[in-house]
Amino acid sequence: MFYLSLSAGINWQVRPRSDDCCLSLSNLLILRGKDVSRADTSAFQDSSIYSPLSSSTGPAVSVWSHGREFSQREKSAVLLNNGQSSIVDSLDRIVGRAWNMFASRAYLHQYTNCGLDENDFVDCFAALEQVLADYRHLSVPRDLSARRLQASQCPT
Description:
about 160 residues; Helix Hairpins; 2 domains; disordered N terminus; elongated; disordered C terminus; three-stranded mixed beta sheet; alpha+beta
């Protein structure tokens, strides 16, 4: 029987890149299998891979582990990431399509019959555009991003 080694060709010495990389808000690392509780997860504790916004919301990484195998694999790992690279393009495309449908008034009559009006849609679009802008700002260099965070916390 032939087994493919998943380790073949993987550089296990990868370290966080410079400040111009895509930053994350948080990560969830799920480890399953034999001896996974002894895995070195310290690279996920490195604050340079997280947005400055992460420090105000609690721990930026959670690691869950269990000794039971998953899908007949001795060891497995899953990384769930909440960062710029994982959502911006998809959300931008979805919001763009929704704007186009709204502009052509597609299905709008069905929503207005149920009590919604056009301002409800505009408010939702504004909220989504703000979410997109926030994710885009995750890639801003750390010193500029930290200054923006400090400025936003100043009383007016």
